[in-house]
Amino acid sequence: MKVADGVAVLELPMKVMGFDTVIHPTVVWDDEDVVLIDTGLPGSLPYLTEGMDEAGVPLARVDKVVLTHQDLDHIGGLGSVLQAVPGPVEVIAHEDEAPYIQGDRPLLRMSGDGRAAIPTPADEEQRREMLQLMEAAKNMEKVHVDTVVQGGEVLPYCGGITVVHTPGHTPGHICLYLDRTKVLVCGDELEVRDGSLAGPRPGLSADDPMARRSIAELVPYDVDTAICYHGGLWHDDTNQRIQKLAQEGELR
After folding, report:
1. What are the two backbone dihedrals, phi and then psi, of residue 151, each rounded to the nearest 5 degrees?
2. pTM to 2 decimals?
């Protein structure tokens, strides 16, 4: 689905813990570069390919992949994307996420390290799905991060992509502000939940209070449209809603 000139949000089906849902990678492009932001779970390649074809930007044109953070539903499709693209692809992530993405450290959500771990479900089908995810994470091809970034950097692609460091969900979680189109790619910092733009879902972050406080990092940006990995698009008074969420996050 086209969001703005040179920006499209993709819709990838995902089933986790017995629930069918949709996740939303983003593709940003111009005549020189095609940037894919997040890559879905392992096995997502056919859906990525189909979605990019519908957007009019073939997967083969991707020359940059930016990862908002280390969770499997964001990085799991990376290896297959790199294999499918004929040319070189620059992989970009925050410096605090790179060791996890590269396999130097176990993924937080899969390691049982703190609150980021997947809870053990009581339902047998959900337990099998969880074990399959953990097995996929363990066997996932390790990929080198070519470029590490910090908050405040501007990637010189597609009119400028500003890196906004929003730690808490994971240590190096980032959002990406597309300077030319005033689109904010939120990763898991914000989501559309119960018909409203909301902060990070409680209980799913390595540090819940920090994740809520990090919403304040988004306030300085003039946002027309927010792309939430979970929940999709938000257009309605976006700046005011982000300011309200930031104030609530500071109070908790």
Report:
1. -60, 140
2. 0.91
